[in-house]
Amino acid sequence: MTNALEITQLNYRKNTKTILTDVNLQIAPGKIVGLLGENGAGKTTLMRLIAGVAKNAKGTIAVHGETREAPRRAFVSFSEALQGFRPADKLSQIRDFYALAYPDFSAKKYLDLITFLQIDDDQKLSTLSKGTREKFIIALTLSREAAVYLLDEPFNGIDSMSRKRIISSIIQWKQDSATMVISDHYVSEIAALLDEVVIIKDHTVCAHKSSDQIRSEFGLGIEAFYESIYEGDIHDDEL
Amino acid sequence: MTSFSHAFRVMWRPKFRSMNQLLFFNLIAVVITMLYQIWQLGLANLEMITTVMGWGAVFGFVAFILLTRQNEQMLVSDTYRLLPTGDTKLYLANLVTSLVALVYVGVVQVVLVLIGTAMTGKTIRNWFQTNVNFQMNAADLRNLALYGTTTVFWAVAIVLWIWVFVNLIHFGTNTISAFLPNVQQRIVKGVLAVILTWVAIRFMSWIAHLESQVYNHFTTVSDITLNASGIWLDLLSLFVAIAVVAALNIFMMKRWVEAKY
Question: Is this prediction's ipTM beyond 0.90?
Answer without folding.
Answer: yes
